[in-house]
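Translate structure to sequence.
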């Protein structure tokens, strides 16, 4: 079987050599026609052009980002920012650093400095079960309670419960924390030690889920995590929808002063077609 040859590396080498040859030829041509001082002047002009182009690009990007770009509303990120604001509203100097405990073979690990703390309540979903007795064995077992919908599908029934949750706003150590958002770590009160000094979470690592961080022992708990995040998102969407509906109602009823002025200004403008038809009717 003939050996296969890698032609990609040879092509890359040829391309690099070709580009290098073109650059050297350009430099030699500039030196030959304009001399050493001319090439320094050329480099200086080139740097000025690049600097002006960079400033223009930055201004264009800022204009696009501030005025033209359509920013989507991320309700989960908004909820995260609200938790950060609530956690840092009250200063808690008795809280220091945040750790995870690790396991038997590993010591605890530092996550960062605690910048804020708040205790909230979250909704959890608990499925409803009923006890039944097996006719053959006589053993008792639990069966999930379901109710059929309009299409005949069996829908599991559940109850909503409230549970307390501790939210820690943690800033990682190092310079990278200056250019990133703080970590929002959500734990049950029994998943960490006392709220004095350094706080240690009882786990090996932290797992990001959506905009938040949870212990590795909880990241697959849909009942505890996913349901709570989705209910918070539904609540935020409902509030935003009501705000948008109020603005539409204000415009429709004329309560919105700015919109009303815009309508009045448009009604004062006489269209050219209408003016021409009027003149034809008078003088025709």
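Result:
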């Amino acid at each position: 079987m003939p050996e296969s040859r890698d032609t990609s590396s040879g092509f890359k080498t040829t391309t690099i050599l070709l580009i290098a040859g073109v650059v050297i030829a350009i430099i030699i041509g500039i030196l030959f026609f304009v001399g050493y001082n001319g090439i320094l002047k050329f480099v200086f002009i080139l740097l000025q052009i690049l600097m002006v182009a960079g400033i223009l690009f930055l201004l264009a990007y800022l204009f696009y980002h501030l005025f033209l770009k359509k920013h989507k509303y991320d309700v989960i990120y908004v909820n995260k920012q609200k938790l950060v604001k609530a956690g840092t509203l009250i200063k808690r100097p008795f809280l220091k650093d945040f750790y995870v405990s690790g396991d038997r073979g590993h010591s605890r690990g530092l996550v960062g400095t605690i910048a804020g703390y708040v205790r909230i309540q979250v909704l959890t979903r608990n499925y409803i079960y009923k006890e039944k007795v097996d006719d053959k064995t006589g053993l008792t077992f639990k069966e999930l309670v379901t109710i059929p919908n309009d299409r005949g599908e069996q829908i599991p029934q559940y109850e909503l419960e409230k549970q307390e949750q501790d939210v820690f706003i943690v800033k990682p150590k190092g310079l990278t924390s200056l250019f990133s958002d703080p970590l929002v770590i959500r734990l049950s009160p029994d998943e960490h030690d006392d709220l004095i000094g350094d706080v240690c979470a009882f786990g090996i690592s932290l797992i990001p889920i959506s905009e938040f961080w949870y212990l590795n022992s909880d990241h697959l708990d849909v009942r505890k995590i996913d349901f709570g995040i989705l209910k918070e998102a539904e609540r935020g969407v409902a509030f935003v929808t009501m705000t948008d509906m109020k603005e539409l109602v204000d415009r429709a009823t004329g309560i919105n002063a700015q919109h009303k002025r815009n309508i009045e200004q448009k009604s004062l403008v006489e269209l050219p077609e209408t003016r021409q038809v009027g003149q034809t009717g008078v003088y025709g």
